[in-house]
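Q: Hi! First time doing this. I have a protein sequence and I read that you can turn it into a structure. Is that right? Here it is:
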Amino acid sequence: MSVTDAQLQQMASRLAEQLQARNWQLTTAESLTGGWIAKVCTELAGSSAWFDGAFVTYSPQAKQSMLGLTSELLQDAGIVSEAVAAAMARGALQRSQASISLAVTGLAGPGGGTALIPVGTVCCACMTCDQLARNQPPHVTTWHFQGERDVIRRQTVHHSLLRLCDILA
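A: Yes, that's right. Below is the predicted 3D structure, encoded as structure tokens:
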């Protein structure tokens, strides 16, 4: 599936409307997308009204120092896992002024895939302040995308924004 820049902007606009209707702000914790979700969001004029900030935590060390993940979690669960995505979403929400967080971790390739975690595997987690306050788990989803690195990353941005919009709906 090819995702266009126009489709990404359409999803960001939809998300902006939903967040503004709730008077909420978003924070992101991004690994394989390298800040692309934040870029798409902040391309919209006025995004400071609903976008708080982003954590680009590409390395395991960044996930630990910026989001508070433990080396044990990263080793036991693996960098590309629902447990790590959930911990990233929780850490981003705890370290921001946002009302909701969106976290992604995955494997865009071209190398590094295994039989258990093939290239194109992406884990996405979304968490609200209400879930955090009640100590409830985030919403977590795993996708398996096909294509080259840029295609996988672009699909991740699109599907992550779509997932967040669905949760807010």
